[in-house]
Structures are given as C-alpha cells and as structure tokens.
Fold each of these.
Amino acid sequence: MVRFQGVAMRYANGPEVLKDVTFHLEAGSYHFLTGPSGAGKSSLLRLMYLAHRASRGTVKVFGHDIAATPRRLLPGLRRRVGVVFQDFRLLDHLSARDNVALTLRIAGVREDTIRAHVAELLSWVGLGDRLDATPATLSDGEKQRVAIARAVIGRPSLLLADEPTGSIDESQGMRILRLFEELNRIGTTVVVATHDQRLIARFNHRVLRLADGQFSVERPTSLSGI
Amino acid sequence: MVRRQFDLPFADDGSGRFLPWMIALMVYLASLATVAALTTREVVERWNAGLEGTATVEVGPAADDATTEVLVAQAIAVLRNTPGVAAADPVPADEIGRLLEPWLGPDAARENLPIPRLIDVRFDAHTNVDVAALSRALVTAVPSARFDSHGLWLDRLQALGDSVQLAALVIVVLIAIAAGATVVFATRAGLAVHAKLIELMHLIGSRDSYIARQFQFHAMSLALRGGVVGVLIGALTLGALTVMWRPIQQAVLPDLTIGASALVALALLPLLAAAIATLTARITVMRALKQMT
Ligand SMILES: Nc1ncnc2c1ncn2[C@@H]1O[C@H](COP(=O)(O)OP(=O)(O)OP(=O)(O)O)[C@@H](O)[C@H]1O
Ligand SMILES: [Mg+2]
C-alpha cells in the first residue's frame, strides 16, 4: 500500500526534516504516527498524500513509484487517499455541505448522489443542523469534523489523519476514532498522526515513532511482550 | 442540477470588479468600429448600384433661359444619337432647385440665378460606350457641356469604403488581442490569489481541467456581462448618432440607417468576447498548472 525506502525530505533549501525513513504499510493496516512537535509527522504525511517529493529514497504509494509517476496519473492516486489536514484547510466561502461535497464533485459524482451522501455523513458527525454554515461560523471542533467528513466521503483506500482529535472533546474524539476503526475494518488503510499518548494506549495499533530524526516502528503494546 | 457557486472564491479576488468594465469598454469600441464598417459597405453598395451604368451631363447656363434650353436640347440630341445610350433626360429645373436648396435657400430656382442644367444619362448594359469620344462629341456640339461618368467618383468611394472596412477590421482584431491579454492578466492574478486553494484541490484529486473550468466559467460570465453592457452603450451611442444624422441626411447625405447585418454583428460581439475570455482563461490556467506538482 505504502512503502518508504531510505526516504529523506527537505523544504526548499532547508535542512532535512526527515532522514532515512524506511517502512511498509500493508493494505488494511492501522498505524499511529507519533513523536514530539516538530518531529516531522505532518511532513511524513505530506509525502504520503503526494504534496511533496522525497529528496532521497523511494516513496511508493499503491505500487507506484511517485518520483517516476507522470503528472496526469496523480489525480487518480490522490482520489484514493483521504486526508484530514492538521489545519483543516476548509474553503472559507463554501458551506460545510459544499466543503464535503468538493471531494465528490472533483471526482465527477452526480449531484443528487452527492447531496444524499454528504447530508448523511455530516449528520453522522453531529453536524446535521449545520449543513449550510460556513467555516467562519463553526467552532474548531466542528471544523475538524467537517474536515474529517471531507476526507472519508470518497471512501478512500488510504486515510491519513493529522491530529484529527486535536480540537474536539474526548467523547467526540472517541466517536471519530471509532469511525476510523470501522473504515479500517472494511479495508481502509489508516494512519493517524497524534502526540496524544493516551489515545495511542487506548487502541491496539502499531506505532510509527519519529524522534530526534530517528524513525522506528513499534508493535502494538499488547503484543510487544511476545 | 446546475450549481451557481464556484469552488474558488472568485467573488473576493478583484477580477469581478475590473474585468467586466474592461470588456465593456472594448466591446463598446468594437461595436462602433463594426457598425462603421458595415454601414459604410452598405452605403457604398447602394450608391454603386444606383449609379452604375449612369452618367450626368452638366450644361452651363447661357445668357438667358431660352438659349440654355436650346443647348440642353442639342446635348440631349448628341446623347440620344450615340449607340449604347439607353436614355438621356433633362433633370427638371425644380428638382435641381431642391438639390441646391440646402446651400442656396428655398427660392434659388425661382430667382433666376445662373444655375447649370443637368441631364441624366443611362447606358445600355450590353454596349460598351467610348466615354471619352462621347465626351469630346458633346463638347464639340455644346462647348459649355461637361460630361461626368461617375466612374472616378465611384472608384474613390469604393476605395474609401474599403479603407474604412480594413481599418475597422484591424481595430476589432487589436481589441480582441487586448481583451485576450486582459483575461490572461486577470487569470494569472486569480491563479496567484487562489494558489493555496488550487493546491488543496489538487491534493484532494482535482484534475487541471476541473480547476481550469472554474476559471473558464468565471471569465465567461464576467466577459458576457461586460460585453452586454458594452454593446448596449454602443447601441445607445449609435441610436443617438442616427437621430442626429436624420435631418442632415434628408438634404444631402446618404441614408445611414443601421442595417440588419450590423444588428446581428452587434448581438454577436458579447458572445465573441465571452468566447475569447473562455478560451484564453482555459489556456492560461492549463499552462500555469502544468508547472505545478
Ligand atoms: N512549509 C515548511 N517550510 C519549511 N519548513 C517546514 C515547513 N513545514 C514544516 N517545516 C519544518 O519541518 C519540521 C517538521 O515539521 P512538521 O510539521 O512535519 O512537524 P510535526 O511533527 O507535524 O509537528 P506538530 O506535532 O507540531 O504538528 C519542523 O522543523 C518545521 O519547522
Ligand atoms: Mg504536524
């Protein structure tokens, strides 16, 4: 599904924010990505959702070596990736409904299908009565839920969530994570970046850890003793 | 279902404020140039059709009216004896008076002013008349006669008409180029303003063509709006000119009523502007996006 081999990354001419990262995410796996602030979690995700090119090494997503993939094939790959951005990146002039619908519109889904699906999903994340609200009138937690809805509405095969529970209360957070579990159960590969160790402890998933430029993969805690 | 809203917030990027007015101005100028060209062509054609195969003979006034009548009769006799001349008729004196009225006043014909007499000549369409020989024969018979075949005058009129049309065509082409450049400028500015959102749209799987379509439709609707305003102001201007023209025209100048072809051309101008805007915006966006990842 996703394979990194000796990957390094830098912004423009800055220093390398990732050095020599190697891992493999199997299809249908669920990983937490953790590490202190500034460790490079968001940067690693950027490589996975094809927003940035590696400065060294190979990044393979869905079996495609990204460095060698022609530009015209990228939209197709990106549509199979759902992203919850750390800063949401909602379109301020569009309603919650249209923000979520954008994913489907871009993919050319019919308008009546879009309407039904979007309303249903937004209701599910507790925003059924805020369909026509613009981001400016939503709380951070509500914005985050719109961002999550936009990421999952297209049934992506790879879901990347950058601090998806950062702005919402614990019960809402658990609800969202259970949605991710549900999506994972039906085959979606999930990566959740978070520095919330309690969250990681509560779920039994493998952990990708970034610290001091070092990258490591940890087995789930319950299995670590075996 | 048609959505009226764009995915990109064009409403607050400023393009909506200046592009329609630029297009309105350009379409306004183009409408004047177009109507000038088409009207000139119609006038030239009408005069051509009316004057082709005709000539006028002018007989200078003699000491008294009776002598002038004799000279006119002599000239008409020469004309009618020439093979190829289908008709030669004196222009009645009161009609000459009417022609001169704007310059000499309503009583000119009655005040016994020494006014030359005119003879309308119509040639047989199938015979080639040696105009120079006819002119010489006329002057021999009636020294004060002057032969005007209209040919030179019509040639000059035709040349003038052609020049006006060429100039109008060049003007319209230049305006189209300027409109295209304006749209390129506005579109590039839009791309810069919305760069973050365009990146986001790419990241959630948008193709370049989807983003280009947003810019295209936006440019099209602005150009269409501006174009309609421009052409309406153009029509008002032309209407006012026609109203001012009418009293003068009855006396001397040709009828400059705007014809059907000019109206069709006017209606097409906003569509042309919209087409140019759409195409230019698309090409600009597709080119710019190819440079992005
Ligand atoms: N657009 C950018 N341009 C230059 N440097 C950047 C950019 N984005 C991030 N960085 C740098 O890259 C490093 C990793 O940042 P990143 O955002 O990936 O960390 P993170 O682990 O997601 O942190 P956080 O937990 O605060 O979200 C940091 O040193 C940061 O300053
Ligand atoms: Mg981050």
Amino acid sequence: MSLKLENVSYVYNPDSLYETTALSDISFEISQGETVGIIGHTGSGKSTLLQLLNGLLRPDGGSLVVAGTPITKSSKNLAELRKKVGLVFQYPEYQLFEESVEKDIAFGPKNQGLSEEEIAIRVSEAMALVGLDHSYRDKSPMELSGGEKRRAAIAGVLAMKPEILMLDEPTAGLDPQGREKLLNQLMGLKGKLTLIFISHSMEEVAKIADRILVLSKGTLVLDKPVEEIFEEEELLREVGLDIPVVAKLFARLREQGCDYKRNYYTLEEGLKVLLEGEDA
Amino acid sequence: MLKDMTLGQYYPVDSRIHNLDPRTKFLISFAYILGIFLLKTPLQYGVLFLGLLAVVRLSKVPFSFILRGVKPILFILVFAFVMNLFLTPGEILWSFWKLKITKEGIKLALLMVARLFLLIMGSSLLTLTTSPIKLTYGMESIFSPLKRFGFPVHEMSMMMGIALRFIPTLTAETDKIMKAQMARGADFETGNIFKRARALVPILVPLFLSSIQRASELADAMEARCYHGGEGRTRLHELIYKKNDYLAGIIFIVFFGIILWLPKII
Ligand SMILES: Nc1ncnc2c1ncn2[C@@H]1O[C@H](COP(=O)(O)OP(=O)(O)OP(=O)(O)O)[C@@H](O)[C@H]1O
Ligand SMILES: [Mg+2]
C-alpha cells in the first residue's frame, strides 16, 4: 500500500476571520503502482489534498500514512518522506531559478545527497522522459517557452525518482499539442510508479487514470474505477463536472436501445467500436 | 508558514471606527502617540488604557487579535523592562552582585512597558480598522499642502498604496515558492548561517523575477486605463468629514484633556 487516509481534514487559518475548511473527513487508500486522477470543481480542495500527501501541510484531524511514514499535526523532519514523494505544483514554472536547465533539474537530486555521476545520469534520464533533448541542457530556464518550462519543472521532480509522483494540473495553460505530448509522457510513466494527478478535464483523467476520485467542497463524493465512474452522470453534473463527450454519446446510444458490452469513454476506443464494430 | 502578521493588517468588519474618515483616525492616532509621552502617573496610563479598550470594543476587532499583533515585539517590551529595571539609579531595594533594583527602576520599567504597549496597541488599531486604500487616500489628503513645494505627494501615496496592497500577494507567493522548493528537498531550517543564506537563493530568484514581471504588468494595466499621475484625477469616493468625525475629534480632545488634568485634581 502506497498511502492511506482516514477521516482526514484540513482547515486554513483556523480561529480567524478567514477560516476555511478546505477538506473534511477524507478517507481512501492508494496501492503501489496505481494511477489515480483527482478531479473537482475549482476550490474543491484538490491542491490542498496533494500538499497534505507530501507533508507540506499537516492534517488538522484524522490519520494519514504516506509511503510508510505517518504524517500528523506535529510531524517534524518530513524531508525523508519528500524524497519518496514527488510533487509537481500547479504552474510549476515559477520554481525554476538556476542559470541552466541542467542545474535546475539537478537541484532535487543534489538535495538528496547523490554523487555527481549519479546526478548526471538522473538529469539525462529525466530530460529524456519529458522529451527535452540535449540542446536544452545549457539553456537558461528563462529562455524557454511556457510548455518547455513546464517540462523542465516536471523533469526536476522526476529526477528525484520518487516512489509516488503527484502532479497538480500538469496540463493547465498548455496548447493542445503540448498537452497531448505531456499526456503521452505521463502515460509512459504508468505502472512504473504510483501516479496521482489533478485535472479539470474529464477527458484527460479518463485517458490516463485507472481510478478517479471526485472532490466537491472539501469532501470525497466519488471514488471509482474509470470504467464505472461515468455511470454517475447525474451526481457528476451536480458537483459541477461533465463527463467526456464519448461517454455521453454511448450513454445516449444505450438509451436508444443499442447494447454494448462495456463502457467506452476515450475517442480512440469509441471510434473503434463505432467504425469497426469492435465491441469487447 | 508566514502567519501572525497582524501588525499592519486590515480587519474587515463594519463598525463605527471603521467608518470614520481615515484623516480623522490618522490625526487622532498622531495626537495619541504624541500624547502618550506627556503622561506621567500610573493613573493616567490606566485611564487611557480603559479609553482604548472602549475604542477596541467599538471597532469590533477582537481584543485577542490585537494582542497577537503585539506578540512579535514582546522581545522589545521585555528588553525595555529589564534595562530600565536594572539600570536606573536611585533608592536600592534589592541588590545582587552588580545588579541593583531600585524603586525608581521599577516605576520607570513599568511606565516604559505601559507606554510601548499603548503605543503599539493604539497604532495597530489604526491599520486594523482602515483599509490600505483609505489609509493612503487619507495620507495623501493630509499631506497635499506639501504639493505646493513640489513634493510628489500623490506619487508617494500611490506607491505606498501599491506596496500595502501587494504585501499579502507576495506573502502568498513566497509561501508557494517555499513549498515548491521544499517538495524538491530544499532545507531552510538546518545548518549554519551561510548555509541558510544560500538556501534562500531558490526562493529569492523566482520571487524577484515574478515581482518584476508583476510590476511591469501592473504598470501596463494602469497605463491602459489612462493613469497619468495625480494631476486632475478625481475619486469615486471623495473624503468628507461627517458628524461622527467631529464627534470623534471632540471626544478625543476632551478625554485626553481630562487625563492630562488628572494629576492636578487628585
Ligand atoms: N493558502 C490558503 N489560505 C487560505 N485558504 C486557502 C489557501 N489555499 C486554498 N485555500 C482555500 O481552500 C479551499 C481549497 O483550495 P484548493 O487550492 O485546495 O482548491 P483546488 O481544488 O486546488 O482549486 P483549483 O482547481 O482552483 O486549483 C478554497 O476554498 C480556497 O479558497
Ligand atoms: Mg489547485
């Protein structure tokens, strides 16, 4: 088991005028190697949840164990934990600070106390994983385009070789091509580590994740495998989410009396079924 | 991570104190600060404290919230107390090795602490009940006579307004960057002073970059809306003294007058 939450809650600015309950009574487990998508309306507590899982925020209630380390209100020295759990923030571009892409990616591994040779290997691997070729090594991060910066920032976390990789809206603000590329690179990571990512797009989550958690107003309203989640169209709509167009199409077709063996929700599968009649 | 910064923070509720003209509050606070230095007896401090409590009550700002603002300067209070306690010559009450506590020392130390405490509580009440925008409008209006001598009053107050406005933004941004670097294993808490100073680089570089970018975006946005300095600029909300402002002024003068007279009566 990779991580486990029991009745976790978190409150921002407790006992003040600005008190906000960001999460309440969240319980779930994620096992090793799973790929989980977290989705929810803006302000539903997704980012807060990831920061809790990385020990950047401490829970106000409930119990939380990540990669074998319990995180409580008074936990200290979670640096060890953060070596195992990589977190890529929403809009991670701003965290770039070194003079070259290479040095910036090396920042994490250096903090882990690795040797020079090991760091060099890690940097090369991470750059390859996110699709940045050799020519980017010596460029200043400030010269990169938005999408390239994003990839450099993600490489900076991948280079730490986390057991659990968490990404907060990795594709936000990217153009369709950049988005597609990044998604494919994430697909490539599937199964190699525990992957948890946040997205606003059902299409995206449906494409990558095996399992989806839906947050609404700080509570966990749904936790289901992808194949089943889109049967909950009503509930999803209630919490301000939509289901992928393809899933919608098949739901309507079913209503019209067509019978399919299972649920389809990605464009590729949908096309196969409709054009080639491959229903299995 | 960066909490407990009530000093200079606005507490947004609706109260009679909040609704006073910022100039009124500014002038009264100024007079109050000068006035504190005229007080001599414990009785005077006590009465002033009661008066201040009444104002706090009216302002609807919880007393505990104001006290939190005093916490960061607790060290200064203790320091002032200890220095005055031991270093004032006079009638010796108690002595140990080279340390002497004198009667005058106790008195002075207590007065000093009371003075500092009232000073900070009073002035934080000004910022707690006045939004940064109103505060700068007020200052601009009070100092506007200086324009005649070529002093850039409007520009100064605009700068101050922007600075105040961006404190929370920058605090949030710093917090965000710190967390992002901590997630990459950065360590800000251990090591000697050089190591810690070096550890700040990954925070400061992104912070400066984004501040510069933000500043240039703000300048563009202001120009796009035809901002060109204070010349001929009118306001949506003009500052006008109302009944309550005169009332507040009169109450303050009468109250402080009584306090100053107290030692002569009793
Ligand atoms: N630093 C903070 N201080 C106070 N309140 C906060 C802070 N960060 C988030 N919140 C509040 O907590 C709640 C959850 O925020 P969170 O950032 O986790 O939402 P989110 O699901 O990630 O939203 P988005 O999709 O917009 O990124 C919101 O109501 C937000 O206003
Ligand atoms: Mg978020």
